[in-house]
Amino acid sequence: MEVGWVLALLVLILVAVPELWRRTTLSAARMVEYVRLPAPPEGAFAEAYRETEDWALERGFAPGVVAELRFRLGGEAERIARTAYWPHQDGRIVLSLLENQGRVFYDFDTAFEGVDLTTTNFPGHLGHPCVLNGGFRLQVFPKEGLDALYARHREAVVGLERALGRPALEVAEVLPWVQAYQERRMEALRRCPFFFLRFWIWPFMRRRYLNRPVWEVTPR
Questions:
Q1: What pLDDT score does 95 carry?
Q2: pLDDT of residue 88
Q3: Are the beta carbons of 138 and 118 closer than 8 angstroms?
Q4: How far is the CA of 50 from the CAs of 2, 149, 183, in angstroms?
């Protein structure tokens, strides 16, 4: 009888914990607000913004949109970080500038029907517990700058267009597009098997990936 109760409890945990994690993860993603700020920004973020803006305008991106990420819990909204976004004029690529603990990082994002692609130099993305292949492709190049990241991202976009047989989706309003993109990223992360367990043990396993900083884009 005791064994039966133990097995029942184990089954309950295996069913309830993933569902609780799923609901919590998606709810947290939807609590993040993207509040548009005046451009150009002020303070330490301004210099990085100006440098990125110059680079982006020279390569066919539209003028930047500055935003502050705020996490709303109840009636309070707490600032998470400042960001800026430059949609390319061809409508297929969005460049993101992220401020994190006084440092800045870059993402290039492109959306396809059913598939999203990010190329980044933010090493924190290597903390994902597995290759996100459920509709999300991630490439991480921690030591590379804008030119190299942009070249790699464009190459991946062309490869995905060829493999999927359809073009990338165009960006309409950049902030709603980015927020929807980030929510889909959280959804893809949640679909990793046993992510709620891997999340806790992954920091102890990252050393084996230090010599493999790039997550290859391999459509499935």
A1: 97
A2: 95
A3: yes
A4: 66, 19, 28
Say what the pTM is: 0.76
Lowest-confidence region among 35-44, 157-166, 201-210: 201-210
How many residues belong to the chain? 220
Closest CA to 168 of 176, 152, 157, 184: 157
Map residue 42 onto helix, strand or coil. coil
What's the rounded Cα separation, in Å, for the pair 69 and 34?
Answer: 5
Helix segments in 86-216, DSSP class H: 146-164, 174-190, 195-201
**Residue 104 buriedness (CB in 10 A; 0-12 / 13-18 / 19+):** buried
pLDDT in tens, 99-136: 777 788 999 999 998 888 889 888 777 666 555 455 77
d(CA 129, CA 108): 21
* Least confident stretch, 41-55, 116-130, 150-164, 201-215: 201-215
Tokens read off for 2: 């005791």
Q: Are 142 and 121 in contact (CB under 8 A)?
A: yes
Exposure string of 137-166, with b = 16+ CB inside 10 Å and e = fewer, is bbbbbeebebeebbebbbebbeebeeeeee
DSSP-assigned letters across all residues of 68-95: EEEEEETTEEEEEEEEEEEEBTTSS-EE
Q: Which residues contact 30 (CB under 8 A, 6 or more apart)?
A: 183
Q: What is the mean pLDDT of residues 33-60?
A: 86
